[in-house]
Amino acid sequence: MPRRRQPTARQERLGIELRKLREAAGLKAREAAALVGSDSAQMSQMESGIAGVSEERVRILAAHYSCGDQELIEALVAMATDRARGWWENYRGLLPTPFLDLAELEHHSTHRLDVEFLHVPGLFQTEDYARAVFSYRVPELPDSEIELRVSHRMERKAVITNPAPTPYEVVIHEAALRIRVGKRAAARDQLARILELSEADHITVRVIPFELDGFAGATNAMMYVGGAVPKLDTAVRDAPHGAGFIDSEAQLGTFRTLFRMVEAVSLEPTRSRSFIHQLAKEL
Asked: ∠ CA(9), CA(235), CA(78), 5° rounding?
């Protein structure tokens, strides 16, 4: 298969998982390469996502790595053979690659957990809210790029609004709901949008009020995206130059625990909707 100049995060993740399996089996790259009639350089390229890997090679390697997790194998095969062009590809060359990688990750997600303290989650944002967020940065973006980013963010919402939506649980701190990112009318529309989405069966919204005593978890904003199998879950954290994807099983376990801790102290969904409704009335 031809080499890729810039593999996507999904292609890199496939390589990472193949490397994890090889290392767990105690094999060197050259030993694994010999199993599929290749060499160590090409094996390195496959494990970094630079070179593609066929279904046959995935299955041969999994067998020699003594991987008995059939669900994981099938998920890796699906990643290796997926040639579909997603809507986000329309933005390639127009927006930074992390925007595209995040959209692709969400497209393939099986569930989603978010915790936000200062901003309304991206999947909930209205156009006015998103435009205000992208406008408030240094150096300033030209209007054309701001509109591209807003358009991209609006298209990302498909994962929770399409006919087969992704289950979505989100915890939002009162601060994020009260900060007027845009004007008063835009803030009111944003709260109305959250209330509208919270009525969906696949969406659970919880709020952490300012009055909560003993809450020291305000640094634990997070996005957790479920993969085809738990080993392919991904945590996403903001980084200076785009989103950072985390795939370590130990760290993923920590993020799951953190989410449940934050969820446990938040208002239950019905009270949360009443809380948001009251905030909207105050605007």
From this structure: 45
Question: What residues contact residue 208 under an 8 Å CB cut-off, 6+ apart?
Answer: 171, 172, 173, 174, 215, 262, 265, 266, 267
CA distance 199 to 243: 29
* pLDDT per residue as tens digits for the range 200-240: 999 999 999 999 999 998 888 999 999 999 999 999 987 65
CA atoms within 13 A on the CB side of 64: 19
DSSP string, 210-246: TT-TT---TT--EEEE--SSGGG-EEEEEETTEEEEE
Q: Please, is 124 exposed, middle or buried when counting C-beta atoms within 10 Å of its C-beta (0-12, 13-18, 19+)?
A: buried
Q: Residue 113: phi, psi to the nearest 5? A: -125, 125
C-alpha pair distances (Å), 183 with each of 40, 43, 124, 188, 226:
58, 54, 17, 9, 35
Q: Nearest CA to 174 among 224, 204, 127, 212?
A: 212
Within 8 A by CB and 6+ apart from 126, the residues are 186, 189, 190, 193
Sheet containing 112-116: order of strands:
203-208, 168-173, 112-116, 222-225, 234-239, 242-246
Q: What are phi and psi of 236, to 5 degrees?
A: -120, 125
Alpha-carbon span 79 to 108, nearest angstrom: 10
Strand partners, 77: none
For Cα atoms 233, 266, 255, give the angle at the middle one, nearest 5 degrees. 25
What is the reported pTM? 0.93
Residue 161: closest CA among 123, 131, 130: 123
What is the per-residue pLDDT for 1?
59
Q: Identify the CA nearest to 175 among candidates 218, 222, 135, 216.
A: 218
